[in-house]
Amino acid sequence: MPGRLNERSVIAMIKEMQPPSPRGVLGIGDDAAFVPRAEQGWLLSQDMLVEDIHFRKRWATPEQIGAKAAEVNLSDMAAMGATARFALTSIAIAPDTPLNWIRRLYRGVQAAFSPRGVVILGGDTVASPDKLVLDVVILGTPSQTGPVLRRGARVGDRLLVSGTLGDSHAGLVLLERRHGRMTSSQSDAPLLRAHLEPKAQVELGVGVAPLVHAMTDISDGLAQELVEVIEVSGLGADIWLDSLPTSPAMRALAERLGEDAIRWAVFGGEDYQLLMAVDPSHVPHICTMSRQWGIDVTEIGVVTSKGGVRWIKNEEPVEMRGEGLAFEHFAH
């Protein structure tokens, strides 16, 4: 029967969506893929999205789910200043899932990968009792100066972030409060897009790679990512809360709901912006460079020799608490 779901039909569909593999690369069709040695070596990253943990089918289209799975992996490559090249995708699907739904999911994956030249080389397809699981492994090559790591920040480095913070969390709040129903409010639309359709800062990550001492993407919230960058180098940071970049839409929603927009910016996750530690002399160049991609970069703090993160508001240290905002796997 046309459209019936089986493993071979899913694999054939994914293969049909791929462009021809580059010369010397072996893709879908054999027991394993083959990728030749790269001069600068390979970077590998992996992210898994699980239904009702990372997404809900009643909130997002198949295309949005597929594109998000690709974008979160591309964001890891961007954070290391790397260019994504290939991917492996594995999917666990309930047997009653229509084949066309899976096709739409992979159209979303391709919509994110194809413009970046990423080719899917293989993966796995299995049955699931009920929930959808989509796992992506991505391979990329670092810049000529090598991969940018989380560690490497130096005392006196300026801390920069791309874009705005807290929009994705605001979009999640909207969806939860409206039980997944989409809103027609023009002011809320950018917040929903930030959560459902995140965009990895690929061009910016590659462009700034030679100029930054450390970098990571903001997937688990600014507070958590700061700890990852600062503690690994045995240093600290002063963060100027008044300087955090936030969108008018996010601030308006927080005010409407009686919430603190700054807490959303600090602890809300899934922004997929870049956090960079940069020598002060490079800050103007990075800010100018970012504008060619239509991205604003904001200076939000400085790396210090004192351990831990100090939150500064109106030139005075304040306490920031993230209870109920920061997501932690296995916390419940």
UniProtKB/TrEMBL annotation:
Residues 154-309 form the PurM-like C-terminal domain. GO terms for biological process: thiamine biosynthetic process; thiamine diphosphate biosynthetic process. Mg(2+) 3 binds at residues 31, 76, 217. The keyword Transmembrane helix does not apply. It is an enzyme of class 2 (transferase). Keywords: ATP-binding, Kinase, Magnesium, Metal-binding, Nucleotide-binding, Thiamine biosynthesis, Transferase. It comes from the Bacteria. Mg(2+) 1 binds at residues 47, 124. One of its GO terms (molecular function) is ATP binding. Its EC number is 2.7.4.16. It catalyses: thiamine phosphate + ATP = thiamine diphosphate + ADP. Mg(2+) 4 binds at residues 31, 45, 76. Coiled coil: none annotated. Signal peptide: none annotated. Substrate binds at residues 54, 270, 327. It holds the Pfam family AIRS. ATP binds at residues 106, 123-124, 150, 219. Mg(2+) 5 binds at residue 220. Mg(2+) 2 binds at residues 47, 76. Residues 29-140 form the PurM-like N-terminal domain. Pathway: Cofactor biosynthesis; thiamine diphosphate biosynthesis; thiamine diphosphate from thiamine phosphate: step 1/1. Catalyzes the ATP-dependent phosphorylation of thiamine-monophosphate (TMP) to form thiamine-pyrophosphate (TPP), the active form of vitamin B1. Reaction mechanism of ThiL seems to utilize a direct, inline transfer of the gamma-phosphate of ATP to TMP rather than a phosphorylated enzyme intermediate. NCBIfam families: thiL (TIGR01379). Belongs to the thiamine-monophosphate kinase family. This is Thiamine-monophosphate kinase.
